Amino acid sequence: MARAQTPTDRGSVLADLADAIMHAARLIRSWDQAAETVVPLSTVEAAVLEYVDRHPGCRPSDVARDLRMRSSNFSAALRVLDEQGFVERRSDPTDGRTANLVVTALAKRNIDVIRTRRAALLATALGDEPTRVEDARELLDRLRSTPATVD
Question: Where is the HTH marR-type domain (predicted)?
């Protein structure tokens, strides 16, 4: 029978889990940057690019809100992605005051290389057991949808 965890033990275990997630994110990031064919991006730029790739036609304000970014940080990242030819702004047919964002073919090639490398890295770490992948995916999806402020 498993021993019941005290709140302090549980807090410590959860803090260790958060540390492990952060370490894994840094590992994946360094793995991404090691690809010779990939244009290096900052963490913020990569997050914006990945969001736009998953949500083609999104509005800039939606990206900043959903990624929980300050508008100044988001604007700087979007400017870099635009200058590098990774993102296009298209007129919003329903609101002429704003634009919709889409990734370019160049960005798509960059993203495909990164996603292939990430899949290989995670396949090595998680092995052939499908439940490991499903459990990890469920945890990360829940984290992604957790409100920004948690007490």
Answer: 14-145
